[in-house]
Amino acid sequence: MEEDQKRFIERGSHKGKGLAVFTSGGDSQGMNAAVRAVVRMAIYLGCKVFFIKEGYQGMVDGGDNIEEANWSSVSSIIHKGGTVIGSARCMDFKERAGRVKAACNLVKRGITNLVVIGGDGSLTGANLFRQEWSSLLDELLQTSQINKSEREKYAHLNIVGMVGSIDNDFCGTDMTIGTDSALHRIMDAIDAIVSTAYSHQRTFIMEVMGRHCGYLALVTALTSEADYVFIPEMPPPRDWPTKLCTKLEQARTIL
C-alpha cells in the first residue's frame, strides 16, 4: 500500500513554495497548453504560482509583469495558438545588471522555482541565470536591496525547461512543443497546391522552417511523397541537379 502511494505526488506536498512560469523567444502552438498544465499542477501541489508576462523582459521590469495566477487564470486557453502571457526578446537580460534586477524581482515575491518555455536561447539564458544566482543574491545583499534573511531563505534557484520550438531541434525530448502543429500546417499548404502541380505537370519547391534541423523537411517529404528532399544533416551530392532532373523526367514519363 505504501509503495502505491509513493507513485503519486501528494496534493499540497510543496505548500508555500513560489513558482513562476514564462514563455520566451518565438511563440509556438502548444505553449498555452503547457502554461495551463504548469499552473494547475503547481496549484495542486500547494505552490504560489505567478505568470511572468513578456518573457525575460517582464522578469527584469517586474511590477505588473509578474502576476499571481489562479485556477481560472488558465481556463479556455488550451485551444489558442501563441502564448497568452506574451513573449519578447530581451536585451537587458543579456547584461548582468538586467539579471540582477530580475533576481531582485523574484526574491521579493518569494519565487525560487522557474518554468521556462522557450527555445535554445531561452533555455541557455535560464541556465546562466541559475549558475549566477548565488552571486546575484550576494550583490543584492551588498547593495541592501535584500536582507540577510532573504539571502538565506532564497539561496537556491530551481529551473525546469520546456522546449517550445517548431523545429524539433532539441535532444532528450521526443517532440518539442509546436512541432506537430507545424507539420499539420505544412501539409495543409502542400495539399492545397498538389492538385495544381499534377494538373500542369509542374514541379513545386517547398521550403520549410527548421534552421539546422531537417526534421520538418524530412517528415514532410515522407508524408507528401516528395521526389527529393534537402536536409542540413545530409548535404546533397555535387551532382544533385542531374539526379533531381532525372527523377522528375521519370515521373513525367510515367504520367
Automatic annotation (TrEMBL):
Signal peptide: none annotated. InterPro entries: ATP_PFK (IPR022953), Phosphofructokinase_dom (IPR000023), PKF_sf (IPR035966). GO terms for molecular function: 6-phosphofructokinase activity; AMP binding; ATP binding; fructose-6-phosphate binding; identical protein binding; metal ion binding; monosaccharide binding. Residues 19-252 form the Phosphofructokinase domain. SUPFAM superfamilies: Phosphofructokinase. Its cofactor is Mg(2+). It is found in: Cytoplasm. One of its GO terms (biological process) is canonical glycolysis. The keyword Transcription regulation does not apply. Keywords: ATP-binding, Cytoplasm, Glycolysis, Kinase, Magnesium, Metal-binding, Nucleotide-binding, Transferase. It comes from the Eukaryota. Its EC number is 2.7.1.11. It catalyses: beta-D-fructose 6-phosphate + ATP = beta-D-fructose 1,6-bisphosphate + ADP + H(+). Coiled coil: none annotated. One of its GO terms (cellular component) is 6-phosphofructokinase complex. Pathway: Carbohydrate degradation; glycolysis; D-glyceraldehyde 3-phosphate and glycerone phosphate from D-glucose: step 3/4. This is 6-phosphofructokinase.
